[in-house]
Backbone:
């Protein structure tokens, strides 16, 4: 009887460890894709802009996924570009390198091609205008070892058996130089967990970053997102827009990823236009949801 109880105890312990391991390894997966509905009709929004890409929308209330280009959404990984500012900001707040979204990092005096970057910026302002130098300085303040610790804790960019990133001398560029890559599924999982404060950060840090993502707020809907735009290791322009839309206090999470073989393709306005066209097709932004 004693040996039987010990064996049962060991099996229970093993199951707990296995469950914990599965939860950690799936940290950035958005959810089961069993309820996924593919919509090939969304191809037109990419084709008319000479882009390849994918899109997914997750209805948190029903658990329904609507996906365009499932293979790309689930399996193809690309550099996160400025969507990494979500994680960078979370780590900065969690570690006290910045106090909150009002903290200012002074301009370094270097003139850059985007005028909005050439001044002292608060974290909120830097997040909104997607200031690369501001968040590069934040990464340097966080430091290599601390940044590495949090990337490992999150399992960031490590799904599908991909090798974990090892930060070397690229502490302030690894999210831009193709050292780390993420899938659209991971991106959707990240923003969903952020919204529900399920990431391994203090709730306060997650509330602050969620609030920084809010871009439109009116009587019909609230739209929160972060964009990204950089060059892949193939020399292609990669664009992201990730976030959520709320109507009647109900969140729907989305990710849009686009690619052009033209490295000079201007993603800045196209991403948002495609997103709003798709959301509009599904009846959003009209106060009818």
Residues:
């Amino acid at each position: 009887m004693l040996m039987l109880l010990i064996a049962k105890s060991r099996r229970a312990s093993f199951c707990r460890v296995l469950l914990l391991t599965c939860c950690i390894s799936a940290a950035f997966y958005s959810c089961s894709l069993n309820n996924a509905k593919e919509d090939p009709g969304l191809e037109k929004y990419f084709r008319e802009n000479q882009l390849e890409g994918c899109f997914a929308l997750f209805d948190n209330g029903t658990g329904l996924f609507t996906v365009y280009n499932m293979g790309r959404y689930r399996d193809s990984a690309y550099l996160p570009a400025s969507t990494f500012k979500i994680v960078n900001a979370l780590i900065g707040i969690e570690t006290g390198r910045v106090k909150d979204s009002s903290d200012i990092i002074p301009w370094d005096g270097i003139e850059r091609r985007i005028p909005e970057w050439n001044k002292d910026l608060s974290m909120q302002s830097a997040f909104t205008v997607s200031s690369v130098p501001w968040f590069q300085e934040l990464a340097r303040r966080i430091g290599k070892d601390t940044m590495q610790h949090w990337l490992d804790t999150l399992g960031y960019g490590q799904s599908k058996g991909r090798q974990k990133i090892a930060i070397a001398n690229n502490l302030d560029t690894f999210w831009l130089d193709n050292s780390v890559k993420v899938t659209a599924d991971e991106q959707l999982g990240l923003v969903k967990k952020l919204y529900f404060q399920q990431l391994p950060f203090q709730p306060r840090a997650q509330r602050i970053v969620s609030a920084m993502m809010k871009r439109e707020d009116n009587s019909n809907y609230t739209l929160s997102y972060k964009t990204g735009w950089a060059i892949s290791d193939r020399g292609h322009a990669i664009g992201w827009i990730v976030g959520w839309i709320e109507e009647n206090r109900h969140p729907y999470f989305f990710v849009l990823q686009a690619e052009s073989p033209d490295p000079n393709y201007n993603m800045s306005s196209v991403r948002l236009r495609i997103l709003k066209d798709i959301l509009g097709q599904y009846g959003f932004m009209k106060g009818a949801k």
Remarks:
- The chain has ten helices and eleven strands.
- The two ends are 59 Å apart (CA to CA).
